[in-house]
Amino acid sequence: MLTREDANSESALLSEWLVEDRAAVRKGQAVCVVETSKASIEVEAPGDGTLVQLVAADVEVELGSSVALVAQTDAELEEAVARLAKAPPRPAAEDGPRNVTRKAAERAAELGVDVNLIDKSGFVTAEDVEAFAAAAARADAGAGDADVVLDGLSTENVSLPPIFSVGEGVGVLDEAFLASLRDDPAAFGARSSEDRVEAYRRAGAQIGEGVVLGEGTVVVAPRIVLEDGVTIGDRSTIRCEEVFAAGELTLLGDSFRLACRRAFIGAGTWTADRVEIGGGGHRDPWATFVLGELGFIGHEVFVNVCHPVVIGAEAFLTMRSVLLTHNIGHSVLEGFENRFAGIVIEDRAQIGVGAVVYAGCRIGREAIVVSNSYVVNDVHEGTLAGGVPARPIGHASRPPSRPRQVELAHRIVDELEGLLRLRGIATGVLADGSRGFELTGPEGPGRVTFAETVGSGTDVPGGDGETVVLTLGATGDAPAGCVVLDLLARRVHGDGGVLTDSVREFCRKRGIRFEPGPWRYGGGLV
């Protein structure tokens, strides 16, 4: 039964079932989500048994009514199914005061939308508000001048990379040069990286220092911006109808394929080999690809961009995951699914191995989609979702206690020393007996230590060579002669050398990506 959460709400929107109909549930397990004008509430099962849904998702229900039954015996299950079969159809929603979910009200306030103008019976949701705002923006701009770059997608919880704002007149190629690229890309790709980079510069592209184009790689676009240190692997092909821009120290793997109208890739991004971005509709007006800074794309990922795909900072698309902005099927007039819509992956979200995200979905900040899942609905911030179709199955993270954080930091130091020893690098205990180790072989002198907090007065092991201090909290100036890596703030204090870079890379592989950045490991001890 739905309880009344505030004195002003008479009804609620059953926005999502978290458990399949006729599935086994346990007492206290969240089974559905309802939204009122004041709150979003997870409804829990009152006992163990089999859930029988009495109401479909996206239906307005009266507070105080039952939306499901939990049958604890076979007889109760039969009775519940019989009750459901005899239930009269629910009447259509009557006209009256607008019912607006709490999230929709907040979003309407942000976007300046009058919810009374939204033509919909029943509850108005946040998605309704965003769609109305996007349509209004397009109408205000006019059909010919509408901004189609993001097609009205909300960028809430998405850190767009600075390269996304590159000026319209930057990196414009000479038309004759562009025509030659389109006519014979193979001949251009056969030239050395240095020759190609210089040719792009002479033709008007904005190319930074240290840019490397792999063997046979060609970028074809009317505007090209490649910041310092961009590397594009061998046998890669990039074709954009308007602009291709990549931020500092971006690394795109071998056989990278990209085809769309416009692409903006943030600084410090890394992609594995055989990534493909494009597919059907890649020349459509909405075909935009945006990837935030420090993004990761694994082997053989496929991203369809017939509508915009916007991915936030530090987001992960792991190997063979798929993002689809449209489907190919039979006629919508015959009742078949036919959807064309953009996809948003918010900051620090992760898409698991082999998972598929369908058109129109939004993956919330720091949410995780587990491997081999099929996502057809939004995944909320911080949620762990999985299955076919994907449903919430837990929390993406569980913050550890301080003692547990100290224990984990100790493990990082110990595992780093173990790796160095396996690589033949000699280590020994620190002279003061503190947690950490000395480099005692030809790679030294140097040392790595841990201190729970570090400030200018902290006593840390010293000596010749580098001293790298890992900590859970850096306050004030770092001790003289040390480089401090704050594991929680994810920040480096001070300048180091090979040992510092090696520790930083070891931490990066464990999900700790330090600022300032972007940064790329140039080789060292690990």
Question: Would you kindly provide a brief summary of this structure?
Answer:
This protein is α/β, with parallel strands linked by helices and 526 residues long. It has eight helices and 39 strands.
Give the topology, please:
Blueprint: E1 11-17, E2 24-25, E3 30-35, E4 40-44, E5 49-53, E6 59-62, E7 68-71, H1 74-86, E8 99-100, H2 102-111, E9 123-124, H3 126-141, H4 175-183, H5 185-189, H6 193-203, E10 206-207, E11 212-213, E12 218-220, E13 223-226, E14 231-232, E15 237-246, E16 251-252, E17 257-265, E18 270-271, E19 276-278, E20 288-291, E21 296-297, E22 302-304, E23 309-311, E24 316-317, E25 322-323, E26 343-345, E27 350-351, E28 356-357, E29 362-363, E30 368-369, E31 374-375, E32 383-386, E33 391-395, H7 402-422, E34 427-428, E35 436-439, E36 446-451, E37 466-471, E38 483-486, E39 491-493, H8 498-508
Parallel strand pairs: 8-9, 10-13, 11-14, 12-15, 13-15, 14-16, 15-17, 17-19, 17-20, 18-21, 19-22, 20-23, 21-24, 22-25, 23-26, 24-27, 25-28, 26-29, 27-30, 28-31, 30-32, 36-37, 37-38
Antiparallel strand pairs: 1-3, 1-6, 2-5, 3-4, 5-7, 32-33, 34-35, 35-36, 38-39
Helix pairs in contact: 2-3
